[in-house]
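User: Can you help me understand a structure? I only have the sequence.
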Amino acid sequence: MRRRPKRGSRRRGERVGANGRFDGVSAASSGPAVAVIGGGIVGLATAAYLAEGGARVTVFEREAIAAGASGRNSGVVQHPFDPALVPLYHETVAAYRRLAEAAPDLGFALPAVSAGLLLVAHGPGVVTALGAHLRASVPELDVEVLDPTTLRALEPSVAEGVHALRVPIAYPVVPAAPTYAWANRAERLGVAIRLGRSASPAFIGDRVAGVAVDGRREPADAVVVAAGPWSAALCDPTGRWRPIRPLWGVVVETLLADPPGHVIEEAAMDVALGTGELAIQAGEGRDDPTETPETSLVTAAGATAVGSTFLEAEPDPPAWTERILARAATFVPGVADAPIRETRACARPLSADGRPLVGRIPWADGLYLCSGHGPWGITTGPASGRQIADLVLGRDAAIPAVFDPARFRHA
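Assistant: Let's start by predicting it. Here is the structure, written out as tokens:
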């Protein structure tokens, strides 16, 4: 199979200006100078909102745009099941709509209608339990339990005997497309994006004074860390504060001949959905996540991303390919014969309580954090970026206390 060309192939250290040339153009603004560390969906949305507010913004990314989870995920914008995240989801969806309307040439538009999510299982227990749980915890969702016959009539590609819960909440997207749209938006607003540059906050006493890049300090009035799983280490190099950890996912991208129209996820995918205990209570058990993947299928632009894993240690992606496809084929048999385009891995930035950290770092004046979104980065990240941008700019950011980084004690 032909491999897709690599994205983000600009040369190391080059600046991208508002006109798209490598010319070092920066915003003509008298606002604060802000450095953003991280070229994923959160960092680039933050940069765009900061620039809209008049800040002079530079993004530092050690690899390429969308090099991490923002570009290597399965590719779905999906209503969260945690009520605290729901407002971020709605704001993010609205932001995507405005982005596409304002600049259709950016090449990204959220689907007009939700494809729907099928939460699948080989037995009825976990589906029934999850349906009751969601009706109670997220009552605004339209939840429908489907028996195997009804499911097969709706999705003929699904195997016989599979039970499902249908929720109309999922928008499939090309994984990196939202991040590239925000990058282009930021560039047009005058943000300088510097790729291949590893940056860290630079301190003078207990105040941030810019970022350290290649052994020198680049001054800034404020620094926003949006570096995914590595964010906590940048905020506290001593290692005493680690509320965010990497949780590794492996995804196999396939060319499935007759893919499901819905997004499909295994109902017992406990990390993403919080349903592991429900599976145990329903008597269906839980497999060891270090050995067994949990199925998800997302189709966008002709490619079907099949996943996934939830691993503490960085995996060898090819070693997981057959396990992921074999598991998925028990739900969608056509996966077994689908051509493979690539196998990729990413580190999701998972916080200790499953909610993002958005706000000031209390021990360093001028240092801000926006990270820890776990598997919900493209679903909630842009709204978090707006929140942190408003905070940096001195506006009423209205950030809920449940997202405050200070909820995790700094030893």
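Now, to help you interpret it: Residues 117-168+245-351 form a domain with the D-Amino Acid Oxidase; Chain A, domain 2 fold (CATH 3.30.9.10). Confidence is low (pLDDT under 50) at residues 1-27. Let me know which part you'd like to focus on.
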